[in-house]
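User: Assemble these into one structure.

Assistant: Restating your components, then the assembled model:
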Amino acid sequence: MLGTYRIRTDLAMEQAERFTEENVEIRGVAIQENYDKEKDIRTTVVKIQTENGAKAMGKPQGCYITIEAPNLSVPDEDYHREVSGEIAHHLRELIHLEKEKSILVVGLGNKSITSDSLGPQTVDNLHITRHIIREYGVQAMGEEYLHRISGIIPGVMAQTGMETLEIIQGIVAETQPDVVIAIDALAARSTRRLNRTIQITDTGIHPGSGVGNHREGLTEENLQVKVIGIGVPTVVDAATIVHDAMAHLLEALDEAEQKEFLEELISPNLHSMFVTPKDVDETVKRLSFTISEGLNMAFARV
Amino acid sequence: MLGTYRIRTDLAMEQAERFTEENVEIRGVAIQENYDKEKDIRTTVVKIQTENGAKAMGKPQGCYITIEAPNLSVPDEDYHREVSGEIAHHLRELIHLEKEKSILVVGLGNKSITSDSLGPQTVDNLHITRHIIREYGVQAMGEEYLHRISGIIPGVMAQTGMETLEIIQGIVAETQPDVVIAIDALAARSTRRLNRTIQITDTGIHPGSGVGNHREGLTEENLQVKVIGIGVPTVVDAATIVHDAMAHLLEALDEAEQKEFLEELISPNLHSMFVTPKDVDETVKRLSFTISEGLNMAFARV
Amino acid sequence: MLGTYRIRTDLAMEQAERFTEENVEIRGVAIQENYDKEKDIRTTVVKIQTENGAKAMGKPQGCYITIEAPNLSVPDEDYHREVSGEIAHHLRELIHLEKEKSILVVGLGNKSITSDSLGPQTVDNLHITRHIIREYGVQAMGEEYLHRISGIIPGVMAQTGMETLEIIQGIVAETQPDVVIAIDALAARSTRRLNRTIQITDTGIHPGSGVGNHREGLTEENLQVKVIGIGVPTVVDAATIVHDAMAHLLEALDEAEQKEFLEELISPNLHSMFVTPKDVDETVKRLSFTISEGLNMAFARV
Amino acid sequence: MLGTYRIRTDLAMEQAERFTEENVEIRGVAIQENYDKEKDIRTTVVKIQTENGAKAMGKPQGCYITIEAPNLSVPDEDYHREVSGEIAHHLRELIHLEKEKSILVVGLGNKSITSDSLGPQTVDNLHITRHIIREYGVQAMGEEYLHRISGIIPGVMAQTGMETLEIIQGIVAETQPDVVIAIDALAARSTRRLNRTIQITDTGIHPGSGVGNHREGLTEENLQVKVIGIGVPTVVDAATIVHDAMAHLLEALDEAEQKEFLEELISPNLHSMFVTPKDVDETVKRLSFTISEGLNMAFARV
């Protein structure tokens, strides 16, 4: 089994897939899939319900919604409004937006590294309302009541000298939101998923995940408020590419032999390399619009 | 006297000048000037020492150091290292950098409005050390001891929905720095000072100041730690240009007549206009280097 | 009369206005105005028909269409599609787009100076077709026939060491377009017109015009093909602000006295200053969309 | 032999290496290597002298200078001035800069795709002199005589609708430079060379080379003036990574079997993927400084 060789993926669905491929059912993990043929959107909900399930999946208990839309990587006029709608739908359910909420949206990642800039670019396009409602009241917004949206782009540790968690803990303590939504660029296992998959989870953002590798998680445990994580894989570790291409080839060998081969073949400097599509700059910009519109739609309706 | 007509300046020196012109000495305000002929740098230290002085100046008690360097607006190879040195010198005195300090540098302003982006651009060029020292200890830095520098670009209220003060209060509470240094683009009264003048003050940043107009001050009173404000005028309100040009012309009239004329002549839409040099994009970029180098120099030496 | 004191404007309409104010009719100049109340768009067509008219107006013979839309400076969802439509309408008439054309669009100005970047930003958003039609034929575009659109952002002389005219002459000689459309940021006389007025002319771009001041014109005479100029005022010279504010005040004086006063009052360094709205970065970005959409609309329909 | 399976490299040295590995000497190809231990710079000069050599190497006759500096990928204070000096040295020899020259520098590639923006970023940092010398004479430059430097960033075909060759042919015909220097981002075969290798050649830029894949070459044959190409590999095609990792593994198989395996294993979508270092944005920016400083040094000295 190749699972002993650690390949990094931030997508719960990719983890689940590996068990499915081997026809193993995992106790404590419920998987539900839905395909909208007209919109060509596949939604997979993975619910990790027990400690055992969490161990098997290598991810904390909670709900992981994956929206796959192959068209996402193709530009269109309205930035894939149908995908924004799907995001909005799931957010409304997860956060219970039928009641007025105060929400802090956090754009994780390094603005000046293209593949890591999804979070910052998304927050740049949000409709921010908290300061207006605080000054003029909700009625100023022309709706019966409305959510108080604030946003922050904290930067990464190399830029700030601070853990992202420290910054967000401080701001949460001061501004007391009901929910934190954190948006981050992820690393995927397969190039097939790059920029076409959006993962929404109620477990927050975890250490070691993301293109820029967070060291301490933005989780309900750490922040004392509900934390929703939204992620899109924008890179694949270059080592993964080689690994995956060879897994098939090496099937004849036993596990120990496989591991030896792979370790020899994957040169160490590959681990500091990313695989990205050639048009990653344009792609991340478009994706950030799809997500920010999803958030704007979710927050606007009452 | 024209003083009754409110003209906005963030520079204590410009305020002081108006009294000097009229040969008035203000009690509670001490002014000291120094000119380095070789470097062509003029340094003015205005100390507002009493409540009375504060009232007369329209600025809080404290020390205001103004560095004027006409050459600043001209590009040079090392981004005016002599000015960086001057900044470093004053910072070392104000913050007592002979002892190890933990310092949070805040880049105020809107990164996507050129004339308001001085603060964010300065923080982008800082040597950030806090996270390294926290992980590996000061000896990892190759010096006997070193300051712990962190930096944040909080964004403006229209982008975040939060008062800058809320964000900084939260981060200060969480990370406990000894000093906060806040950098901001200012509005000046005279085009002659644009991008050539750097003001350093131990009174922090005050409401209504800055290109973007802060509503609540970053001050020692609000943050419970010492706050140093560093500002450079990058714009003049367009209305000021007209006002100043005419002040001279109108000298013959009495005060009431003057006010009437000015109010008639300065069209309301002028108040949403800025006067900037044609090359403001390049200028702000260079200035941010001069200041960040000043900070880097101040922090590096022990 | 103030006319003797040279105040710079790139807008034919502003020039014409000065005569109208004084109730003077100029021979050889026909002015026609149209106001669309519903869309709040005012269109003024100034036709300079004779040498005499050209002299009086200080502009070459030809057709100057000015589209004024006060709403342009306010953001809206579709980047003011009604104004794009108006631009498309006039272009179709001026270039005779009912026949298939090969069109080179030139984005004049300095991309890295915000107020001068209108031309480059507009070309960035154009649908470029020439290379596709050349490789796959017009039928590849899915329309009966289509225009061959190419685009270039030549940069300014300080960046290239070449006159813009040299660059465009070379490219025109090599690629043989039927028409050149040059887009440029202009200087206006009045802040009231900033970012709200679009001028389209069949006389091209003239020396000394534009925010960056071209030295040799992009004209039919120089390029041997029809040249359409499209300009939007994005700045006012700071000196103009003072001048205009005082013109009214000085009416009592005679011409010589006025000139003396003005020359004294307008300090020389004002001439290197621009007046811009505070949000010029965002505004120029939006305007470039309105114009590029106007061009895209004009080129797409058959 | 794997050579039958086409793997793309723009570096002559990588091509030569493959023969060297197999201990084959190619007639018509002279290879000379020099290593400066102190600066840790290895310079390889490959001279393809005959038709036969050109065929074997798959590259046109001419001189290919490769500068390898492992430190290049590490930031330093002066942007690796020692490498700039090496570039300057070779340029002076290739272009005979002891005589006054008129030189057009062309920044190839797409400015808005990070890994392809090396050329545009390099031209942005050049000292442009042609317009000053034309207006004020060489003596205005404060040197006895000086080269006339012009620069252009033509954009890529998808942006302009024109072949880069058309644009440059037009500008060369109009401005008559003695030499064209074209700078481009390249694709390498090995991640080990990424951002650490600079290739200078007197054969210009060839079709199918570069990150963006030029369709017609910028060569002396096409432009009628000498053309120097300067390239730095900033990406590796993702398919190459897999290919290289497996070449070793597959050695036991015969050629036909190898090819079959490889074609099966390398998924088609890999061919639209790039492998880049995680910090490609910062790296390309630094490299462009090293190269532009090399050019500035070469042009400045007399």
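Strands of chain B lie at 29-36, 41-48, 62-68, 102-107, 148-152, 179-188, 197-201, 226-237, 273-277.
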